[in-house]
């Protein structure tokens, strides 16, 4: 039996190839949704878009402080894990759901598999960095997306026998859904956009949007891009950011703010954008895989492969630097090599887990 724990938008998306593979092979598995994300556009829409079965359990933990959220997830997950007694528990990424799920399983002496293991920003102010390090060190199976991620793990003394380089399941998710997206939605028509003639923005990192000065700087940067390039700037707003923008009470000159999109629509928007501006982890990877230049509004990244291949640059959060970075990135050639694998990560992970069951 495989236990799959997920709870936020990126985990639903990046776990979807693993769930699909469990279904295809008719394996005994269950999905435990923690409910860390719960708004329709952060949760349900992805089950619908990706045609995923209903989770078997939902803890409905909702929002809260880090400790509150982590504790609720651990308590809720413990009784379900005890009841189901899975042979291996899978978590994906670096959220509170991940660290809490892994810790609950590990304390019950269950084997933990960490998908997207070994990412490091080397910035411990990010809550996600702590979650990644702890989860990696609790895990029995470390599914590293790249060789660089594997090296990070070995440098921290993790046994190389536990590490398997699989590529990132985000590639599987893109390959499995790009055609479906083309057939099912036409978001460019809906928003009256022309291919390669708009910018797409996302921002939700706690260290960016919970800091009023930084958020203002980012907004001014976006406004200056809009003025200089005279192209639409589309900004689907994460709920954390929506709250902060409301609190600031400032308008955004010429920026098209929207609700978050479903995966099929967002994939299309990303694939056709002139350039993507983001502080998201997954969006840096997706832009790289889709051949779209990316400007990351951060000072570090746990996705250095995107910098190495030239798909991504770090522009920080100062408005002048954002504009300068976009000027140089928008005219880059996009013939880089995708460093995240060939879209079979989900299959490899399930294969390892199926073998673990019989041991
Ligand atoms: C979380 C993850 C982050 C990940 C992001 C993906 C942690 C520490 N952070 O950040 O790593 O990149 O998810 O999007 O686990 N809210 C809603 N509806 C929802 C979810 C959240 O309105 O469905 C609002 C609430 O006001 C909440 C705030 O967003 O307080 C933040 O949500 P939370 O899950 O704590 O963190 P994220 O910023 O979403
Ligand atoms: N995404 C989406 N709709 C949006 C914005 C993002 O479907 O409006 C998807 C995006 O394609 C990617 C994932 O959400 O797969 C990234 O999630 P997020 O940025 O919230 O988290 P992170 O990757 O930073 O942890």
From TrEMBL:
Domain UDP-N-acetylglucosamine 2-epimerase residue range list: 21-350
Record CDD domains: GTB_UDP-GlcNAc_2-Epimerase
Protein name: UDP-N-acetylglucosamine 2-epimerase
PANTHER family according to UniProt: UDP-N-ACETYLGLUCOSAMINE 2-EPIMERASE
InterPro entries in UniProt: UDP_GlcNAc_Epimerase_2_dom, WecB-like
A family per Pfam: Epimerase_2
Top-level division of the source organism's lineage: Archaea
Species annotation: Methanoculleus taiwanensis
């Amino acid at each position: 039996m495989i236990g799959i724990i997920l709870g936020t938008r990126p985990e639903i998306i990046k776990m979807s190839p693993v769930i699909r593979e469990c279904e295809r092979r008719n394996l005994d598995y269950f999905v435990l949704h923690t409910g860390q994300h719960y708004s329709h556009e952060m949760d349900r829409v992805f089950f619908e878009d990706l045609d995923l079965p209903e989770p078997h359990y939902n803890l409905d933990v909702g929002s809260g402080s880090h400790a509150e959220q982590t504790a609720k997830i651990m308590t809720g997950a413990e009784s379900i894990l005890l009841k189901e007694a899975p042979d291996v528990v899978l978590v994906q990424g670096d959220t509170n759901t991940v660290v809490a799920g892994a810790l609950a399983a590990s304390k019950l002496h269950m084997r933990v598999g960490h998908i997207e293991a070994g990412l490091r920003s080397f910035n411990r102010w990010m809550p996600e960095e702590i979650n990644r390090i702890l989860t990696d060190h609790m895990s029995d199976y470390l599914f590293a997306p790249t060789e660089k991620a594997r090296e990070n793990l070995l440098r921290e003394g993790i046994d190389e026998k536990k590490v398997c380089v699989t590529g990132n399941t985000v590639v599987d998710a893109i390959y499995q859904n790009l055609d479906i997206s083309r057939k099912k939605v036409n978001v460019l028509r809906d928003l009256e956009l022309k291919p390669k003639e708009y910018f797409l923005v996302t921002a939700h990192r706690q260290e960016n949007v919970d800091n009023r000065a930084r958020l203002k700087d980012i907004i001014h940067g976006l406004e200056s891009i809009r003025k200089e390039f005279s192209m639409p700037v589309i900004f689907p707003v994460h709920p954390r950011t929506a709250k902060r923008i409301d609190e600031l009470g400032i308008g955004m000159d010429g920026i098209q703010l929207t609700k978050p999109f479903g995966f099929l629509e967002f994939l299309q928007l990303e694939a056709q954008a002139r350039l993507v501006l983001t502080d998201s982890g997954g969006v840096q990877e997706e832009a790289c895989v889709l051949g779209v230049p990316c400007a990351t509004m951060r000072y570090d990244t746990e996705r250095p492969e995107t910098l190495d291949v030239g798909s991504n640059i770090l522009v920080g959060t100062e408005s002048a630097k954002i504009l300068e970075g976009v000027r140089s990135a928008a005219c880059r050639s996009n013939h880089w090599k995708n460093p995240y694998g060939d879209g079979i990560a989900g299959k490899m992970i399930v294969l390892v887990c199926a073998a673990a069951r019989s041991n």
